[in-house]
Predict the 3D structure of the following.
Amino acid sequence: MIHITNTIRFNQSFDDFTRNPKNRYRTFGIEDDVVPKRILKRIGKKEFKDEPLTKEESLELKQHLENKIKELVSTRVPEPDVRTKIDFLGEIIGINFTPFGKNHQDNWISMFFSAYKICEECLEEHKPLYLSISEHD
């Protein structure tokens, strides 16, 4: 699992971490190609917990996620049954990530967008973005 968080995750129980409304996180599978390979190469470990990224790495991760979202948005068709809206780069995108939505990629857009917003928050507030990779958790 890949965990992107706005605070240290593994110094507290999962329940304590998720109950704190200030803690933001997004989890992906290892195979989801979420983290640029250059960042993983710098860290140099297969598994690690709460690795703070540099500002440059946070910007690189944000750009990587932005590119993934743009790619997915480019193939969408208008969604008549909007369930939620996101404001991405000044464009309001109505998504429906239920099985009845017309765009199967909307779930991915939502997931990448939440990770993108965590990157954005950490950069704007000048605080570290944390990355963890583990087989469990």
